[in-house]
Amino acid sequence: MLRTEGYAVTSAESKFAPFAFERRELEPKDVLIEIMFCGVCHSDIHQARNEWDNSSYPMVPGHEIVGRIKQTGAGVTKFKTGDFAGVGCFVDSCRTCDNCRQGAEQFCQVHAVMTYNGTEMDQQTPTFGGYSSQIVVAEAYALKIREQENLAAVAPLLCAGITTYSPLKRFNVRAGQKVGIVGLGGLGHMGVKLAVSMGAEVTVFSTSPSKEADARKLGAHNFVVTKNPENLAPLAGAFNFILDTVSAPHDLNPYLNLLALNGAMVIVGIPTTPAEVAAFSLVTNNRILAGSGIGGIPETQEMLDYCFENKIFSEVEIIPIQKIEEAFERTLKADVRYRFVIDMASL
Ligand code: NAP
Ligand code: ZN
Ligand code: ZN
Question: What whole-number distance in Å separates Cα of residue 277 and Cα of residue 256?
Fold first, then answer.
């Protein structure tokens, strides 16, 4: 077994502390990745604190992983030692069900192996994530990363990038369209960059007036402070597509009312309590309300290649692992500009 250092929480209330555990020895199709950077997703906070009521402990979070291939199994063809590689939110699935065959392995009908707070295909062995020194993963579930000066800024693409890219592609967001992004955090800032790159006119809806200058630097054309509901009224019926990335409970209806004829709003944020939707908010203008969950391996690789070609990376604040508690607190206060990324050399 491969002894691995990490940081874990041991209960919903506990603080992070160093934690040593074992990774499996490499099977023929496995790679061993030395983790260089790992992004801090709000889902890490939801799960570390058991806000989705599905947490097991000890938990080593982290699913925005980039690093270097340290070792390859005898049958590996996609990577060689020294290559850069990424790992996102899941590390295995059955590979044969309808969803897996369609490249939607995150929704495997048998068992999707989440990168952490999950179990391997045996549905028993716990998985541990990227707040750690190394990870063993089947090559089919690792992503190819091109060499890049700032690898830290690549890590958030593995979750925040794919989670925003996938719905923008599915709803064919394009030039001439008006797009709203609700919440300017880790997901939201990637949503702005990606929607702008697809040619849309982008409006950010934010509770934080202090983020307006940043939003414009990211390419947003308009910025609306949502604390004052009067600011939304003049925009009724104006948007083709809205992406809701908010992590906390909030009213969806004022945003649905902004959708134009056949407009769609996609929920990617996962607050802990259900939202009420008024039928009139949907019936009017034949509106669509949809959800979206990360993305499968083929689309994640497509997104990475798209981001490298278009030089779209995350705005990051690099932290040592010892500052993880502070990063959680600041993220909860919406004080993240715009993704904390852990430099694993600090471990
Ligand atoms: P984040 O960096 O904390 O960003 C969330 C943003 O939402 C905040 O920066 C803030 O933006 C806004 N916000 C926070 N509290 C709010 C409130 N009470 N009312 C209105 N707006 C509020 O989080 P993230 O990492 O982007 O993740 C966002 C959500 O997506 C989380 O729930 C996460 O679990 C979920 N997620 C889902 C998927 C998926 O596959 N669907 C993937 C990854 C993450 P402003 O300051 O601009 O208002
Ligand atoms: Zn995530
Ligand atoms: Zn499957």
Answer: 9
